[in-house]
Amino acid sequence: xxxxxxxxxxxxxxxxxxxxxxxxxxxxxxxxxxxxxxxxxxxxxxxxxxxxxxxxxxxxxxxxx
Length: 65
Hints:
Structural class: mainly alpha
Shape: flat
Distance between the termini: 38 Å
Mean pLDDT: 89
Number of strands: 0
């Protein structure tokens, strides 16, 4: 099956999100906070990239890590 570049990228990102899901189970309270923080950043990142640019957005993420 021939896949487009976007499909390959989406599959790779999906695997990475699944890793986060395994790393932070919902049973632990601290893990729940980490999952919420990760989810919030996933929703905010596209807006941050559009407003500040990719380089500044990546620098912000690096500083927050």
